[in-house]
Amino acid sequence: MTDQPFPAQGANEAQTYSGFVAIVGKPNVGKSTLLNAFLNTKVAPTSPRPQTTRRGVRGIFSTDTQQIVFVDTPGLHKPKDALGKYMNQEVHSALADVDAILWVVDLRHPPTDEDQLVARQVRDLPKPLFLIGNKTDAAKYPDEAMKLYRALLEGRAGETSEVMLSAQNNPAAVATLREQVLEALPENPFFYPRGAASDQSREMWAAEIIREEAMKKLRDELPYAVATRVNRWTEREDGLQRIEGEIIVEKNAHKGMVIGAGGKQLREIGQAARKQLEVFLNHKVFLGLEVIVIPGWREDEEALRELGYE
Ligand SMILES: Nc1nc2c(ncn2[C@@H]2O[C@H](COP(=O)(O)OP(=O)(O)OP(=O)(O)O)[C@@H](O)[C@H]2O)c(=O)[nH]1
């Protein structure tokens, strides 16, 4: 990695183990859910819609002497626009830089072309690989499905481990997997301060929560045409967090669709996001939301950069 180790290690400190671990897989298999379960908190947005994750959010887990920097990645898919290309690029750069890979698959279904795309990316990388069969709680034939996913790695030379679990309902299995990942870490100084849970600013994190709620509520193609940003965050003396954000759409026609009749939909998105923010911040939140139009932002390199997709 190019990141500077933090902090520099003193001569008589205990040996530390630290590394970057990518969580990859096709859209909607439960990568972000697994990341949040590893950390017992919410650093990444999740939703029933594919392609919720857009940037490689880092989630950090530390013990006294070990630190895993998980890199949650967007689901690898066939891109339709510049945003999609950016998302796939995030996966490729994550894979190049990490010390170990967690490949998450959905055991409710047999592999698809997109799983094969991921398998081809990871099969020959000489790094420890964990094949994680997720959603065992809802899978009818988990062992059979696992066999089919395993077959996609046939001929792989590197070290491979297999785990079947439910990222959503099985904290003990997630903790055991985390132990296994800790064992795979190379000797390194810590990359982040021990207490850090994520590399995102609080503004980026809150914007992702707003986007998650917008994606859950909006229909058809609209969830994918939406971006979010938090422009102002102030704290009142009594602890109230005042957060002002924007929901960005591509066309004027979309603006009305996000706002909804009489502003109902925007209000619902705002209420749901505010509730989540209050739970995680443990403070009362005032959330102001505005909908703005940046024409064709998904195809506009400059707009993508401005929205943090760079
Ligand atoms: N039944 C079941 N559902 C799960 C489990 N893990 C995740 N899900 C659901 O699967 C959906 C997708 O989860 P995400 O964590 O957003 O998936 P992702 O792989 O990060 O998705 P992308 O952002 O599209 O790449 C959500 O509705 C989750 O609640 C699980 O263990 N069991």
Features of this protein?
310 residues, alpha/beta, 2 domains, six-stranded mixed sheet, three-stranded mixed sheet, 34% helix
Write a concise synopsis of the structure shown:
Residues 165-167 are annotated as: G5. By secondary structure, the chain is of the alpha/beta class. 34% of the residues lie in helices and 21% in strands.
Tell me the radius of gyration: 20 Å
What is the general shape? globular
Q: Give me the strand/helix succession.
A: EHEEHEHEHEHHEEHHEH
List all distinct small molecules, including ions and cofactors, that are bound in this structure. guanosine-5'-triphosphate
Full CATH superfamily name of the largest domain: P-loop containing nucleotide triphosphate hydrolases
Helix content: 25-40%
Report on this model:
- The structure is a single chain.
- 34% of the residues lie in helices and 21% in strands.
- It starts with 16 loop residues before the first strand and ends with a helix.
- The strands form 2 sheets. A 6-stranded mixed β-sheet has the order 2-3-1-4-5-6, sandwiched between helices. Strands 7-8-9 form a 3-stranded mixed β-sheet.
- The protein has helices spanning 31-39, 82-97, 113-122, 142-151, 171-183, 202-217, 252-259, 264-281, 301-306, and strands spanning 17-24, 58-62, 66-72, 100-106, 129-134, 160-164, 227-235, 241-249, 285-293.
- Helix 6 crosses helix 8.
- The chain is α/β, with parallel strands linked by helices.
- Strand 5, helix 4 and strand 6 (160-164) form a beta-alpha-beta unit.
- It folds into 2 domains: 17-183, Rossmann fold, CATH 3.40.50; 202-306, K homology (KH) domain (GMP Synthetase, Chain A, domain 3, 2-Layer Sandwich), CATH 3.30.300.
- It is globular.
- It has 9 helices and 9 strands.
- Guanosine-5'-triphosphate binds at residues 25, 27-33, 46-48, 50-53, 74-75, 134-135, 137-138, 166-169.
